[in-house]
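seq:
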Amino acid sequence: MPLASDQAPEHRRIIHIDMDAFYASVEQRDNPALRGVPLAVGGAGPRGVVAAASYEARRFGVHSAMASLRARRQCPDLVFVAPRFEVYKAVSRQVHAILACYTPLIQPLSLDEAYLDVTAPLLDRGSATAIAREIKMRIRAETGLTASAGVSYNKFLAKIASDHRKPDGLFVITPQIGPLFVANLAVAKFHGIGPVTAARMAALGIHTGGDLRGYPLAFLIARFGKAGAFYYAAARGEDTRPVVAERRRKSLGAETTFARDLTVWDELVSALAPLLAKLWSTYEREGLSGRTVTVKVKYADFQQITRSRTMAGAIISPAMIERISFDLLRPLFPPRRGIRLLGVALSHLDAAPDPPARQLALALA
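struct:
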């Protein structure tokens, strides 16, 4: 069963740890020649995308998810390195081991960030701030990397705090200053409000948390749906979400962008093979059991479609994934436009059956 903090929200002590420019910092740590130069982790080709950017590159406006060609235009001296995900995962495990010394209530968000509830810590240092400071020191000493930390009484404010003084920052938002801090903060900096929502809010005259606080709950729900309730509370520095450990994975996927648009079925079949192999390897290694296969196709004009099929029972072999994927993709051929990207995902995930049951299912498949 997942663990969750059960204290009253106003009594929680939450830390958000965020590694600084994680992938890029690992590359600069391991290769001294890359230190101090603008660096992007990702593909340098015409279809490449920046997965991470060093702080030197960020000064030129380079950021993750940016097309590599655009990044190169903004920073002609940008150096690209291919990602090494196994190395990043190994460092992430080192960091997680440090965090686990202080609390079992750790909610990872990705390889490079996590929430911790230290209301009742395993190692008490007198305050959450002291714990955060010690964690940062240990991360630097044991990995050679820096992390930023935010400390507050809820997750929303802890996340904002960790962003406030990056890199290598430590910032605390107490219950006394929380509401005023949020009131003066631009809504575009709220975690959970993206550029599109921020633009919609700006059209309503909402630019800061203080502006947002002036609107009633019913209005925000009518305009923004369920998220309106979160915005209403966040504008007041409130967030009742607990830190939940061992969060169950909801989906598992793999995708690739092609150097040349695909238009022929046989080309797609060949391109699908390594995707399915990668997907099945992770699915089997993590002991998962899923029922839904989803294929994603992005065309040359960047229009995107998905197709899904849910089975009555668990997917138990790579051949099943391949067969379902082919069934979903075949009606799309011949395509009217070239295919730029292809992805396959599994969802409706749960823990796999015990080995004897899984082996029997495979034998009967």
